[in-house]
Amino acid sequence: MRRLSIFLMSGYLVGSLCGFFEPWGTPAFGGSLDNGINKGTQAYQKGEYDEAIKYFSKALQLDPKSDKALFERGLTYYKLGRWEDARSDFMKFTHIKPTAHQGFFYIGMTYFGQKDYSNALPQFDKAIAIEKRPEYYLNAARAALNNGYSGTAIRYCKDAFELYPEKSKDKNFKEVMNQARELINAEMKEEADKKTRATSMPDAYPSN
Description:
The protein is an all-alpha fold.
């Protein structure tokens, strides 16, 4: 029995060195939730996104309700443009931490990435209700603008300016404001042209 144990242990060590076994749970990695998340974060920072997902996924096997692992994996999916996977993780994250504004913001951003602006906007509103950050207002304004809600887009910008006066000079906010005003002016001109055409039409000729 002792010889068998030694043989098995030797086989495992050789296999690990050769890369046959994932070194999860060995002293080098610890096999703990925190180590898995830390390794995932390190991989993410290096741009090794597939590797990061593996670590975060293994951390979630240890604790499926780890809000940190869910959020970090969601960010990694988001970075890869895997919108549905990212949204799934962010939604699970908000169920665990319903007051975490970042989760709602990134749910909105996954919809934004798919150009689904009508579903993005309510998520930005949820984020703003919890934490009034300028980037939340900016992306809400962009979503509103892409939905054709020019006035609403301007309102988001003005609300941001009240809280962050310096943002009134920000080029991103200026771009949204200018586009919204151009659309409003175009709509007003079109409406005015319609009224002009309606009033300038000649009376119908009387029938004989």
